[in-house]
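Input sequence (146 aa), recorded before submission:
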Amino acid sequence: MPSQKNRTFAEKHGNNVNLNAAVKDEITKSMKNGAVFCNDAFRIADKLDITSEKVGITADLMDCKLTGCQLGLFGLQSQNKASESLLPELKKNDLKKKIMSELINSRLTCKKAWDIASQHKVCKITVTELCNEMKIKITRCQLGAF
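Predicted structure, token format:
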């Protein structure tokens, strides 16, 4: 949400964006305490065969908070985080090299972080932890949260 008080999530999209009724219905069904979890947003995108970005925009238009980022960047309790320290050093080094090879302007996109985790068969949060260790920021949330 924008940093200024009394602003809504919807404001970042301007007045030319319409609310998708089918997506709104699915988000409403998935909401808990005014928020929808990242994994639920992706489930909705798959179910409706739309992009995750469209789900994120609809959530914003509903002023619905996104939580439970699968990369651990927001809304995830620390006890649920993975530990990259359990990885063998060789695997860590391979992951770090892959991360470095995918940087755009010294940053890693959310999508690339997901892809790296999938390709290397590690938790998404492990990629985040390695990025943190390397002082690399993850950008361009697939849902539009950051």
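Checked by second reader. DSSP finds six helices and four strands in the chain.
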